[in-house]
Amino acid sequence: MYGTRVVVLGAGIVGSACARELALAGLDVTVVDRGAPASATTAHGEGNVLVSDKGPGPELELARISRELWPEVLAATAERSAHAARAVEWDPKGGIVVATTEAGAKGLADFAAAQRTAGVRAEVLDAGELAKAEPYVTRDHTAALHYPEDAQVQPAGAAAALLGDALAAGARLRTGCEVLGAATRGGRITGVRTTTGLIEADLFVNAAGPWAGELSARLDAPVDVRPRRGDVLVTTPLPPTVFHKVYDADYVGAVGSSAEDLQTSAVVESTHGGSVLIGSSRRRVGFDDRLRPEVLSAVAAKALRLFPSLAGVPVMRAYGGFRPYVPDHLPVIGADPRLDGLWHAGGHEGAGIGLSVGTARLLRNLVLGEEPVMDASPFRVDRPAVLGPNSPENTGSSHRTESEETA
Amino acid sequence: MTHRDIVVVGAGPAGLAAAEGALAAGARVTLIDSADQPGGQYHRMLPEAYEATRPEALQHGWTAFQRRLRRVRGHPDCAWWSESSVWALERPDPAPDRDSDLDRDPDRDSDPDRDREQPRPPRVHVLRGPADGSGRRRTTLEPDALVLAVGAHDRVLPFPGWELPGVFTAGAAQALAKGERVVVGDRAVIAGTGPFLLPVAASLLEAGAQVLEVLEANTPRTVARGWSQRPWQLAAQAGKSGELAEYTALLLRHRVPYRTGRTVVEARGDGRVEEVVTARLRPDWSVVPGSERTLAVDAVCVTHGFSPQLELPVAAGCALRGTLGGEFVAVDDDQATSRPGVYAAGEITGVAGAPAARAEGALAGWRAAGGDPDTAAVRRLRRSRDQGRAFAERLARAHPIGAAWPGWLRPETVVCRCEEADYASLCRAAADPAGSAARVAKLATRAGLGPCQARVCGPTVAELNARLSGAPADREAEGLPVPAPHRRPLAQPIRLGELAAAPQPPHQP
Q1: What are the residue boundaries of the FAD dependent oxidoreductase domain, all occurrences included (chain A) (predicted)?
Q2: N or C: which end of chain B has fewer CB within 10 A?
Q3: Is the pLDDT of residue B232 over 70?
Q4: Is A312 in contact with B428 (Cβ distance < 8 A)?
Q5: Do residues B363 and B384 both lie within one domain?
Q6: Which residue in A88, A285, A290, A323 has the most chain B C-beta atoms within 10 A of its own C-beta, making it the best mutation to test that interface?
Q7: What DSSP designation does A101 have?
Q8: Which member of A167, A210, A237 has the closest CB to residue B434?
Q9: Is the pLDDT assigned to residue B60 strictly greater than 80?
Q10: pLDDT of B108 over the 70 cut
């Protein structure tokens, strides 16, 4: 495989991570992006590396692999550039999930018990311990759990570090280059036609995030990845007020409702700059990027239930992004069975920042024919949710909170 | 009489004229401003609490202003919302696909119902009450048309030491002098470019400060070339010229030197400004070596033109146009923007001074309210507006920002004051191909992420990043607007508790 030409389509965090793994493995990698690197979904998330919000199953397994890889990857980045590694703002701060209703407490306890069987550390906090860990959180809670493995990164910095590693390993970057279609020969993709000319290669990786559906359609191998909008509020810088990633568990027990409706839940955490980030919302509105005050209002109300003392804090900015959503809530990682040479790495919905490094490692295993770090079949491309745009939505496969990272 | 509901945002010269124009056309008007009194920066008044006996000192066109104010505020169809801020504009759903266009009945164009299908202007989200008070009320307005007249603020280029206490934007210094009768210092230097240097100097002198020097950065040749093109246009700006002549006379009376081709390139001091370094500049604003001079001061006022406050127009979806002096809202002959039902007037469409802003406002208000487009008065307003635009262009030509200004910067010079991001960090981000994209560099350097939300440093950071990285501007994609320094979907800070509260009906006492 040495010298195999790979084109990674998309320079977000998943594309950057894939480029890094493949370039370090000795492949001849070119990263192509329609715009600029790390500027779309990657730059509009909260940057979570979480295990706490995933129930037992393949996504949790990928999350745990990723969580182990992150410190290793960043140590290697630091060897290359201490500055690039610092810009990642890696913070293994841990997550705290708080329930404020009896039903929420029950759901949280059951969820954590199941997670523990899969090896996740989930520690019950009593009222005193919670008050010590998060002095400003509501006293009006019914249960709280601490997940010490949860971490946070500055997502654009993380993507830039991974892409920088790839470039240092010999990868090339082409920005402002939009894919128009595929050049194929005998059922195999041999090139992509772009706004800046034909790019030929042996392998192509679709890592276009929420635009993966549109990109794959241009390549005549459509996968059903759609955008799902989230909005984040940013407060003015505060003295230390929120010490972990703190989120609301009341939806843990609830099975996902109608996917197009607005769903909100509180996710509150601080950043290195001192601002507090407040999410989260989920809406299926296509790529509509208009601000909706009622959505921000609902997010704010949920956050105040967790942190009533933040009521007087000014919100100075709001931003939104689009998560790559797959109807069965599982990523798409693997070869496209319809078009030889085309691979997909995406569909992580709100978990792509954290899952990027594990996804890239798994993709490398599959591309090079190595022993995979986990069974990749749950992520395969030829499953009904991915290939059939009208396939029934499998919302009961895992208990998900509404708290993943592209809030 | 149209009885449309018009919301006018901003009660400076343009907004006040817009309110008057809309009322004259028979509309109901809600006039919104964050200040406690109308007038904007131009007619900034002492707060009523001061019970000033001569509030008109330092004011131009005071009598006419008072007359207009009485007409607007006393009008039964005008609601004056002081201390109110528009924190968001919510764009309506796009018009339904016009797939029936092909088989559309050609007569439908005259269908009176067609108006109702027109996309509406954005919903206006307002916070009412003093910004520092705790009792602000959230409310929303759904006008038939919206006039944006939110004005501009000083653009200030960074230079070593500009973050020191004692360095003011010229606008802030003037606001303190006019609004509070507070002088920013005893020994002041005023530097930058543009005719605004003069009224600022005048305000400071009248308020009792000593102004040591007024420094225009552009060379006499640049200024003269800019002003001398199409000299016949200047005659139409007699009001403005008269005002400038008064300021010049005042400067002469106080023996304040006005120097061209020189500026403040550094401020120094221990904890606050104690001295400045001024230097002679070439036409491109590079420093002439050896021309540096130090001067003991306790205040520096700087202005390098104006940044229009574009967050609301951008939130409304209005198209912008690039000009010599930067980006402004694009408007048509009636001050209508590219968005249906949204009009713009005053400095967000070009910096041409108060007389032009008044003409634009009156035209925008009249037309937003559905007033007759073809009366003699409207034609007069258009002419006056066009003269104002010509003046604005002349102003931009006479007082450009020289391309070599980044030569003043040192690696440790702070570029974003809120986040204390320095020039070196910007250079480093721009040099990294993986991290030079505008959004990524912003998150890495934090320049523009602080409480002012890039209102001060935004254009500067965008310019420096583009120059340093040499990267072409990002292209717009579906769901991914170009990262522009004016994109601020949240136009004003709003407390979490205020945001969480449900909006109340607008016309409650």
Answers
A1: 5-364
A2: C
A3: no
A4: no
A5: yes
A6: A290
A7: S
A8: A167
A9: no
A10: no
